[in-house]
Amino acid sequence: MSDITPGTWQLDPTHTEIGFTVRHIMSKVRGKFEKFEGTIVTSEDVTASHATATIDLSSINTGTADRDNHLRSGDFFNVESTPTMTFVSTGVVRKGDTDFVVTGDLTIKDVTKPIELAVDFLGEGKDPWGGTRVGVEATGQLSRKDFGIDFNIPLEGDKVMIGDKITLQITAEAVLQA
């Protein structure tokens, strides 16, 4: 974000992916959310920039319909009573020319916890439709139990079917608003 135009940027949902990875028994399950909206407001002083996002939890897609329906249930997201997850940034710290740490509040199931995202600014440029775009990639981790998502099935020994640690991977393009 060192050479980014100050302004308000909207996430482009067709060129943005909000994904996650979680341990499942002896492997990992990957998924993404297909419906979301987000805004990045950039400032001359990059540390004064901020971002918000709202993710439709019912849009979860792990590639398995039965698993996705279970994740929407009261055992996990309980989308009937808490249909969205939100992120509101609280700070930006520069870590290099294109590397930043963005801190913020993540709310899932009416529980708000701080989260830290490592952000790599991929650049800014004109698109073929006359707009201006920026690209970023972000990663972070959270404990699902911190948000009251603690369903599990015990396995032999001290093992469980689903890991607690969730790794977030976000690849985003945002378009400068006029």
UniProtKB/TrEMBL annotation:
It holds the Pfam family YceI. Residues 8-175 form the Lipid/polyisoprenoid-binding YceI-like domain. InterPro entries: Lipid/polyisoprenoid-bd_YceI, TTHA0802/YceI-like_sf. Belongs to the UPF0312 family. This is Polyisoprenoid-binding protein. It comes from Aeromicrobium flavum.
